[in-house]
Amino acid sequence: MRPLLAERGCTVATGIRLRTLAQVIDHLGASGETAIIDGTEIRVRRPDAGHRDREKFISGKNKQNAVKTMVLTDSAGRVLFCSPAQPASCADITHARQLGLVKHLVNGPAVEVLADAGYQGLGAQTGGRVVTPPHRKFKKNPPEWYEEIYERQRKAHSSRRIRVEHGIAHLKNWRALARHLGRREHMSDTIQAVAGLLSHQQTVTRGTSQRQ
């Protein structure tokens, strides 16, 4: 059942589903919407002692055994794409590059993608299409005028990309992703199946509210 649900992709309208990152970028380009990306981790069982790739699943951020997925939403927080799972030791920016995000943005339509500091560097590779928080120019003893401007820019960026956090929270409300105790080999199918079901639920809810 999981592979079948995972193959359905994310629903954006009745009978219209997005299954690949390239399709998502094309859809956003046609609609003129902004994308928001972020990586999230899901705890999994620790690999057995002596397992060849045991250390790969240890998260450098949370120091726990986990897998990582990249979630992409629109500006309203609706889930449009959820990547296959990677061991948590993989950096967010490395995962995005492996998924071909840079190639799709450079060769595809003009789409603005909001991201956090973990994706800094992608902006230069995509002609400014990936927008990350501003760099801090003064690391020590910044002038008061600069600190005020920096904080204003940082908060403005954070308020725009907060919707992806809401999308991730809705994903993790599903018990299967709160903490996965099954086989790690099934995680990609489980994550993408839940993303597909959630996107369908969000699309139906959105259509109902618009009719009212």
Task: Describe the structure concisely.
The chain has 212 residues and is an alpha/beta fold.
Itemize the secondary structure elements and their pairings.
Layout (H helix, E strand, L loop, with lengths): L1 H6 L2 E4 L2 E3 L2 H11 L3 E9 L22 E9 L4 E4 L3 E2 L4 H7 L2 H7 L5 E2 L7 H4 L4 E2 L12 H29 L2 H4 L8 H25 L1
Describe the protein in words.
The chain has 212 residues and is of the alpha/beta class. It has one domain. 44% of the residues lie in helices and 17% in strands. It contains eight helices and eight strands. Strands 3, 4, 5, 6, 7 and 8 form a six-stranded mixed beta sheet that branches. Strand 7 (113-114), helix 5 (122-125) and strand 8 form a beta-alpha-beta unit.
Salient structural properties:
alpha/beta, 212 residues, 17% strand
- Order of SSEs, N→C? HEEHEEEEHHEHEHHH
**What value does the Rg take, in angstroms?**
18 Å
* Average pLDDT over all residues: 88
| Unreliable stretches covering 5 or more consecutive residues | none
Strand content: 15-25%
Q: Structural class, from secondary structure content?
A: alpha/beta
Q: Helicity level, as a percent range?
A: 40-55%
Distance between termini? 34 Å
Number of separate helices: 8
Described by strand count, sense and barrel closure, the largest sheet is: 6 strands, mixed
Number of strands: 8
Shape: globular
Q: How many domain units?
A: 1
